Amino acid sequence: MKVVVNISLKDGVLDPQGRAVERSLASLGFAEASNVRIGKQITLDIDAEDAARAHQRAARMCEQILANTVIEDYEITVEDES
Amino acid sequence: MRASIIIFPGSNCDRDMKVAVERITGRRPDMIWHKDTTLDATDIVIIPGGFSFGDYLRCGALAARSPIMESVLDHASRGGAILGVCNGFQVLLETGLLPGVLVKNKGLKFVCRDTSLEVQETVESPFTNGLTTGTSLTIPVAHNEGNYFADPETLASLEDNGQIALRYSEGPAFGPANPNGSSQNIAGILSANGRIMGMMPHPERAADPNLGQSDGLTFLKSALEGVAAS
To answer: What is the pLDDT of residues B73-127, one digit of tens each?
Structure first.
């Protein structure tokens, strides 16, 4: 089953990369852009009998290694095989 | 005094640490490959600096889940002493042996230079016992992710329990005192029981008077003597 994990910095955690990109956007004339935050996306296949089980396993992976829950939140999407 | 130094793929300060430790203790430390699963009896485990696993995913994240770390956790649960330097500090945070996380430097640049550190008053600990509170040490940092972050409750409890061991401070080193935006100028912290220390500065790189600096040697000597006496 195709699983997509989106990892983002928690609110309140400073994102110096996001701020640097925000400044660059402003210098390119995109003054309307603010609150730029940079995260990462991990895609993987999980061998599981159903979507609920795949989701559950992905959540354990996030808790154990994929995310550092001190500073990061994660969001799991299980994509339908069909 | 038996020391064990853990080596991961990408560790690059392991041999400098070995030289410094051997200079102090007169005994060659055990060099332990990360795929090993057992640690021989040891007084201190040292996790050296470098770029373990290429800093993939997050600095220290993959190293923290290496086979040898089970034994390191056992050593910690028996009250064994552990020192993590730079990437080693990041590994200790990823294992959860120490609280918080090290995020990208505020200035977004890799910082490689001397820093002035002030020894703090701490909980009873072999790492600080031999050092007078307020002592200034000049020790270099070399990192891209050394900006210590923890939630306000964790920061307050570190402060209240005397777990902040080293702070960046004004001193002889050139440049702003805080090199990376670290919360409360934190350069090194202790576990609640004082037996585990993580620090961003590299004492092993300031451990040879012939190379112009020896404050790192002062720190390591005091730490290793503290561990031997405890």
So the answer is: 999 999 999 999 999 999 999 999 999 999 999 999 999 999 999 999 999 999 9
**Interface TM-score (ipTM) > 0.95:** no
Query: How far is B213 from B209, CA to CA, in rounded Å?
Result: 5
**Residue A13 burial by CB count (10 A; 0-12/13-18/19+): exposed, middle or buried?**
middle
Is B75 one of the catalytic residues? no
Distant-in-sequence, close-in-space partners of B39: CB < 8 Å, separation ≥ 6 = B4, B30, B32, B45, B68, B71, B72, B74, B75
- Picking from A16, A64, A66, the nearest residue to B106 by CB comes out as A16
Q: What is the pTM of this model?
A: 0.94
Other Cβ atoms within 10 Å of A7 Cβ, number: 18
Question: How big is the CA angle at B149 (ends B143 and B151), to the nearest 5 degrees?
Answer: 170
Q: Which fold would CATH assign to domain A2-79?
A: Mth169; Chain: A , (3.30.1280)
Residue among B57, B58, B149 whose CB faces A13 most closely = B149
CA angle at B212 for the pair B211 and B216, rounded to the nearest 5°: 90
Q: How far is A31 from chain B (nearest CA, A)?
A: 22
Domain ranges of chain A: 2-79
Chain B nearest-CA distance from A58, in A, is: 16
